[in-house]
Amino acid sequence: MTMGRRFLSAVALAAVGAGLAQGSAQAQAPSSAPVDMTAAQARADQTVKAMQPDERTTLTHGIMAIQLFPGAPPIPADAVPGAGYIAGLPRLGVPALKETDASLGVAWVSGARKRGATALPSGIAQAASWDPAVMQAGGAMIGAEARASGFNVLLAGGVNLTRDPRNGRTFEYLSEDPLLSGMLVGAAIRGIQSNNIISTIKHFALNGQETGRQFVDIQIGNAAARESDLLAFQIGIEQGQPGSVMCAYNRVNGNRACDNSWLLNTVLKRDWGYKGFVMSDWGAVPGLDAAMAGLDQQSGEQLDKAVYFGSKLAEKAATDKAWAARLADMNRRVLTAIYATGVDKNPVTPGGQWDAAAHAAVAEQTAIAGMVLLRNQNNALPLLRDAKSVAVIGGYADGGVLSGGGSSQVQGDGGPVVSRPVLAGGMFAGIMQQQFHRSSPLDAIKARVPQAAIHFRDGRYIADAVEAARRSDVAIVFATEWRTEGLDQPDLSLPDGQDALIAAVAAANPRTIVVLETGGPVAMPWLDQTAAVLEAWYPGARGGEAIAKVLFGEANPGGRLPVTFPASVAQLPRPKLDGSDTLDPDFMGNPPTPTTTLKADYNIEGSDVGYRWFARTGAKPLFPFGYGLSYTSFAQDGLSVDGKTARFTLRNTGKVAGDDVGQVYLVDRAGTAKRRLVGFARVHLAPGESRTVSVTIDQRLLADWRDDGKGSGGWTLPAGNYGFALGSDAQTLGQVVTVRLAARNWKD
To answer: Which pLDDT tens digit goes with each residue over 172-223?
Structure first.
């Protein structure tokens, strides 16, 4: 019944590699060789020594490779319209760095390149797969398209934890858990860099909201940060070895993230031993001193108040040995990333081709892998093909599927099928548009029930939608919730009166199916009135076809929620999103006056993000982290744990094939209740099949970080009995298995 995960694991990686390479020399097969930063660093040292004085700041700053306004200087002749451009050093064989957004595909940039790209589903949709193979296949695909488009740096790897589900960039990021996020982003980075291009990991760090994003000051203790958001980055860097880290706009404990010595020098470079380079986010550099705080490259310099890392940096280095040493290190780090990923030996040129059908298949199967079935009363799904009449309502389902906005916006050839303006005018009117990919759910549904009468209503008028639902065997409501970089959600409701629409349709037809195209969690006041709810997220370039396959049972939904769905904002650590009641919406997120301040207190929950917070407070969410239904049934048992490894058995007890996700949680440590995901595995099972799985337990997930009072410290594992439980989600747990562990202390 389902081919989703097996297709992705067995076919997609090969297709993105050897098969797609046939279409173009630019779409190379993924390399299996690991990124070797140490060997590359030795080579980088030699190049740094060979640099002439006038070459020493070439790699430390660059432009946004778009003509921002009429009359602005043209971009360099060898640049490709996109996010950024860093000049190279031809004399030394160092190529220019040509950068594109983002994690979801090669960015559209309003069609500036006259060429589209394949849009993956949103980051949160990919994370809902709980499958590193899915992430790696998607990364390999978008990396291949970046290379074929002439780019050698992909600004991907978004891994900030979901501390507030109203964050406008929730759709770009992955999850609320450091293990899940770190493992998945590492796999995506491996896929991207297998194309001999550089990937970033971003936005470092604690980038938890868009409101006031340029000046919001995140307050958090060292230990809490190390056990949560920073651990996600740490695991992601270990797993993926990204060539670059992109620092964030926000402040952390008073200092800008791109001018934060504790984050960049102490944590990233000293404690974690990171050898790549730190690039700024665009317009995030406050001044020259950011170099001494650990920033290696000024990106999109037109958006900063000045070019700090050009002549100003050269002047400092010419008169101060400490600055000269820092400049040499900046160059060494950029070169290390170039050499480690093979960017210099595998030059890129625009105009390459790729197998569009194979890439579309990767996007489609990624969408299927991440869809989460939230409700299915009386087996309302999968839909039967003998339906005589179907009402399809709302969501521009006749045209396509929704995508998230901002710098990560991807579109295929021809651009969006629908663009719905959010602003009537102003500098960002072109960016602030709700855009839909050209993949119509309505057309895909019609193809599966050609004999049925299909009644489409756009949902603008509730009475019209209700009448169509009343005279149909089944009603399918497509509900959309658009999110974008630069803006947060005011609450968890569906916009444009869609909650009232769903409630009215469900009252008219008890066989109402709701398909959610959302960027994160939403409230569902109508939930109990519906027959089924499918969370499709932003499902990407082939989203319409993917949705139809799941609705009609051609694919079995196996996704699990990577974030908790709260019952209300009152359950959150900060029921009011900081600044939402005092600041007007502003895409750039700048302070309205030079003296305006904004603080967000993350010490409230500390490292207990998402499901950990719910476990701590005892609140019952709408849907827990890790939740998801299937068209079959599963049994989970046989958990055994020795403290370093967990083993368990998953069994398909139903009549159709499907994917289960075993989740192992720490639930007790030395008599103190805990809730921490310490291992997971997604497994495809035929009817009656069982499989025993073994997962490694990262010891940091069992430990606490102990601060040494100097911004550093180490991990502490207390002696005692440790309780573990196997579950289908963070709340539905099996019998506790206990093991006694000895005390340990260690540093990263």
So the answer is: 999 999 999 999 999 999 999 999 999 999 999 999 999 999 999 999 999 9
pTM: 0.95
Residue 739 has a CB neighbour count (10 Å cut-off) of: 14
CB 27 within 8 A of CB 20: yes
Sign for the pseudo-dihedral over CA of 688, 689, 692, 695: negative
For tokens 């179907």, the residue is 390
Average pLDDT over residues 319-336: 98
Residues 6+ apart with CB under 8 A from 18: 29
Q: Give the alpha-carbon dihedral of 273, 277, 283, 289, to 10 degrees.
A: 70
User: Which band of pLDDT confidence, cut at 50, 70 and 90, is reported for residue 15?
Assistant: very low
Of the CA atoms within 13 Å of residue 655, those in its CB half-sphere come to 1
Q: What CA–CA distance (Å, rounded) separates 130 from 253? A: 32
Asked if 605 and 225 count as a contact pair (C-beta separation under 8 A), the reply is no
Q: In sequence order, what DSSP letters do the residues of 412-443 get, joined into one string? A: -TT--SEEEES-SSSTTTTTSEEEEES--HHH
**Beta-strand relationship, 658-669 and 599-601:** unpaired
| Cα 575 to Cα 362: distance, rounded to the nearest angstrom | 38
State residue 139 phi and psi, 5-degree precision.
Answer: -60, -45
- CB-based burial of residue 722 (10 Å sphere; 0-12 exposed, 13-18 middle, 19+ buried)? buried
